[in-house]
Amino acid sequence: MSEVEKKSVGIVHTQTIRLIEPEQPLKLECGKTLAPIDIAYETYGELNEAGDNVILICHALSGNAHVAGLNGPDDRKPGWWDIMVGPGKGIDTSKYFVICSNFLGGCSGTTGPSSINPSTGKQYGLDFPIITIADMVKVQKILLDKLGIKELLAVIGGSVGGMQVLQWAIEYPDFVKSAIPIATTSHLGAQSIAFDAVGRNAILADPNFAGGQYTDEKGPDRGLAIARMIGHITYLSEQGMREKFGRQLRNSDSYNYDINAEFSVETYLDYQGQSFVERFDSNSYLYLTKAADYFDLEKDYGSLKKAFAKTKCRFLIISFASDWLFTPVQSITMVNALVANDKDVSYCDIASPYGHDAFLLEPEVLGSFISGFLDATHQPEVKKNHTGKRIQEHAQIHDLKQAHRVRVDYDVIESLIKPNSTVLDIGCGDGELLANLIADKNITGKGIEVEQDLVLACVNRGLSIIQHDIELGLENFADKSYDYVILSQTVQTMKNTEMVFTELLRVGQKVIVSFPNFAHWRCRAQLFLAGSAPVTKQLPFEWHNSPNIHCLSLKDFDQFCKRLAIKVEKKIPLIKTSRSPVRFAPNLFAEQVIYVTSKE
Amino acid sequence: MSEVEKKSVGIVHTQTIRLIEPEQPLKLECGKTLAPIDIAYETYGELNEAGDNVILICHALSGNAHVAGLNGPDDRKPGWWDIMVGPGKGIDTSKYFVICSNFLGGCSGTTGPSSINPSTGKQYGLDFPIITIADMVKVQKILLDKLGIKELLAVIGGSVGGMQVLQWAIEYPDFVKSAIPIATTSHLGAQSIAFDAVGRNAILADPNFAGGQYTDEKGPDRGLAIARMIGHITYLSEQGMREKFGRQLRNSDSYNYDINAEFSVETYLDYQGQSFVERFDSNSYLYLTKAADYFDLEKDYGSLKKAFAKTKCRFLIISFASDWLFTPVQSITMVNALVANDKDVSYCDIASPYGHDAFLLEPEVLGSFISGFLDATHQPEVKKNHTGKRIQEHAQIHDLKQAHRVRVDYDVIESLIKPNSTVLDIGCGDGELLANLIADKNITGKGIEVEQDLVLACVNRGLSIIQHDIELGLENFADKSYDYVILSQTVQTMKNTEMVFTELLRVGQKVIVSFPNFAHWRCRAQLFLAGSAPVTKQLPFEWHNSPNIHCLSLKDFDQFCKRLAIKVEKKIPLIKTSRSPVRFAPNLFAEQVIYVTSKE
After folding, report:
1. Which of A77, A492, B86, B433 has its CA 20 to 30 A from that of A287?
2. Does residue A343 come out as left (phi exceeding 0), alpha (psi in the -120 to 50 range) or beta?
3. Average model confidence (pLDDT) across chain B
4. Does residue B317 have a pLDDT over 50?
5. How far apart are CA A518 and CA B183, in angstroms?
């Protein structure tokens, strides 16, 4: 058995069952009814005794139920997410029971516009009722009920699959324990609708479309190919296309000087268009893009905050930095709405050059996030001393930054936090302090961190962690929503200190801040006597490579608090060798200091 | 006469003349010949006696010769760049004589694929030879020769028009005094080729295309409309579309639940497609997008540096921040190639939400740049004491930043510069120092500045100015290419100090750097005695709002130079009240300091 075979789910068969009988048609969101409804699905792995290891995968626009493995011994092409689903992979089929069904309106076994309309005996075509993402999810729920599934450990999907994930989390809060919407959005923007509309136009303009009543032999193939080409460009990034194709010519080094396709990227698109025509149905394309265009959680529920209000699951939201179809900003909007509802949400914008399609092309990083999150959800004890392989690598690579992250103040900060309180840790690093606080003091906490590898470490620990730059403020965190906000060894590296502080004091009952004292006697002496910018153990950097962009002392911070009417509840000047506060002339002798502050 | 009429060129008529007679066909780049060739053009303003006020405008893909004014008393729609061209406008027709011709291959009066093929008596269609940007420019040159034009003050154009501008500057170095390529590129990337290819596919897939031999009554209208829709999306930005359309519905507040166009953006695209079909020819669309795809200065000349090697004109390169079709990076690549050739190039990336189409929609800002550059080129004396309206506004708005820019060290720095030398001023602000040096010492200079309004001020002064963040280094500035590189009052605000300094010393024979002395006695006293971060006249900011992210003293800089083996040629410690250097204990008494440094 080869390594590839070992990591494959092997040979699987797509199953099809009748979900909706002709006598009891399904009421759709558009008001019409549909019956019968058949559904095609595949499963991988095994349901455990507790029935708590079920993962539902929702596929994207052009996907189908065949996620992983091969459909027969002669099948050469594994399922569309084979790199992610299998034994030991991101979605580990040796642990989890994985289900995926072809969605309603599809053309790969589930009832859709190419199915036979029982009232005419011909294919539905444009007589098929408009379906929505909510309809698709409703049908998936009926399937799971039929299969005897009692709860979902996770619903996972990218792009249009991610929309279904969101719909699942909202509509079935008691059924779903966690949701991983990837590279998706709560609604399409004007640009995405525009691309979809042009694609539909191309199909409708094809004379072979014949009002939707085309045949297998003579369909709107050219129109569908053009629609696919447009879509395909939006799935890639400019950088990705440049690196893959550039201006490479198909055949020679010099131009042919004729009107035909000549650049490699043209040939590639032609191929994408052609191969799509062979496996996809034009009517389905019309209906499915329309379903995506209609999807709008804000419109459906009044606001995104209201949409998420009744969710109960953990969320891991993932975007990709180069995705310009469903952009990181669209994911962040959802994160903000979940935060405003005080939900358990983690978020990372994964650095990738592959654009929207990165959810199919970044198995390693994405797989690490998914597997860490699934494990933490399945076995939810917070890992106090966890350090994964990636974090160790990270520490080596970024030793300077890591050095800066050495937190001699953690013990003292921990002693200041009351048990069972709520804590927001800004710049939480790999989540050590938060994990300790959860384990030792039973707090409820959330972390904010910029670096992707540290965000992953926090996900692996089972923490709720949001990738975010605090310099942008804390939009959507409610006033006084945390007992404590912690800012450890960060204030001296911030640009917008005043704005950030105002934000922290708005969100936290108390803000605990620690920083190195720039007026420590060693610093003073270096500047006064030697005339040099201070370099000490607490301020270990030379002037030109320091991440510390502000120099401040206890006195400076006192004045800052006074000016902004911030109440200093406690001030704990520290030297490294002792946890006891410095009592005499702290601004002279303290190497660092911890403040507990508050504001009405 | 209304204000609008006063600022209009009034009624103009498109003229058409025969440029190429059947007997003497034009040899095209593809190797084929073409004859006859007629060309349509318009002119505005008057040729002056010196014949030195001629501006050629090159239009973009779907443009034509009708740039400004109306084509008749009943004409309701002014020319495509009427907001830019007219008396008192960005391209001022009361000063300049402006010409624009419909390019070769077009469908608005100039010979193109919809013209009659003399050998068949039918329209050319796909028998028209492939034309290139170089062919278009060649034909424009023949027109100008025929009109008796001896030189061009400027060639201006956006998008595909910008490609013609680049070709003009390269092919006719002695004919062109300045070039303003806007929102353009030296070659299309894979993504742009892909969009063009899909558009062409849509036209070719339309059964009415009939191999290019369609009629006016029955042409590939749906295909052309789809091509235009795709193009149109790429001309806008995601932000622009979101703000203009969002998810607004055409008719009602609720969905129709049918397959037809329903969102406003769909209706808008339908309209754009339809109106384009009424004024444009499908064959022209095929040939012109192909010409754009073929355009590749790197391929044609071996490299972009080689392409620009023989140019003699001044360049003003403009990009728009939200343009994702021809991105700012593509403009910067051209700027770098011109810099590597030591050419007179200015560059600004204009902040605009309008995407690629911003060149048609930002008349105020773009007009200021163009008019300032044209005036400075037409009357090339450097303006020493120029402060334009915008700069005064800027000073009011950004008073803090401006305060930071007060340069008490300018006089001393000027005294250090030898006459007739070359100077690169990093962070040159509104160009005061450079202008003084040019006026007083006859230096040749270039400025680098980040802020758009200050870049504009420099353009208005007639300086060569590149918008650039020095933290990114000085890629493509050759080793030792300037006698002096000046970095005035900036070192303490930089993040990558060591890298930047290494770059400056690579590019300059000497680097003159000035900064505030953090070890001045007032600073020392404040930290030593009061324990506060210093706030003085030279360091006027509190710790939390300071742009000065590094604190350094003379001693610190001495050590920095020693470590990097930088030779300190001169060190001039200064106090504000005197231009004489501080002689006693400079690290204690100097408020600021000027260093002259160098490195082998």
Report:
1. A77
2. beta
3. 90
4. yes
5. 48
Q: How far is A490 from chain B (nearest CA, A)?
A: 12
Beta bridge partners of B573: B593
Which of B473, B424, B479, B418 lies closest to B447, judged by CA?
B424
Q: Cα distance from A492 to chain B (closest Cα, Å)?
A: 8
Q: How far is B236 from chain A (nearest CA, A)?
A: 9
Q: Residues A449-481: pLDDT tens digits?
A: 999 999 999 999 999 999 999 999 998 899 999
Residue of B nearest to A287 (CA): B259
Q: Which of B208, B253, B544, B558 to mutate to test the interface with A (most CBs of A within 10 A)?
A: B544
What's the one-letter identity of residue B180? I
For A245, which of B190, B273, B523 is closest by C-beta distance?
B190
pTM listed for this prediction: 0.92
| Domains in chain A: ranges and CATH | 3-373 (3.40.50.1820), 398-599 (3.40.50.150)
| In contact, B100 and B42? CB cutoff 8 Å | yes
Question: Can you tell me the ipTM of this complex?
Answer: 0.91
Distance CA(A588)–CA(A284), nearest Å, equals 74
B497 touches chain A (CB under 8 A): yes
Contacts of B286 in chain A (CB under 8 A): 259
Residue numbers of A between 521 and 550 with CB closer than 8 Å to B: 523-525, 527-528, 530-533, 542-546, 549-550
DSSP per residue, A392-425: HHHHHHTHHHHHHH--TTHHHHHHHSPTT-EEEE
* Least trusted range by pLDDT, from A540-549, B175-184, B245-254: A540-549
Residue A3 CB partners (closer than 8 Å, separation 6+): none
- Write down the pLDDT at residue B496: 81
pLDDT higher than 70, residue A521: no
| A–B interface: beta-carbon pairs under 8 A | 246
Q: How many CA atoms lie within 13 A of B600 on its CB side?
A: 1
ω into A36 cis (within 30 of 0):
yes
- Residues of chain B in contact with residue A277, where contact means CB-CB under 8 angstroms, are none
Compare CB distances from A130 to B257, B519, B530 and report the shortest one's residue.
Answer: B257
Task: Name which of B191, B523, B551 is nearest A241 (Cβ-Cβ).
Answer: B191
Across the interface, of B189, B202, B238, the residue whose CB is closest to A242 is B189
**Cα torsion angle, B156, B69, B146, B125, sign:** positive
- Could you give the percent of chain B with pLDDT greater than 90? 76
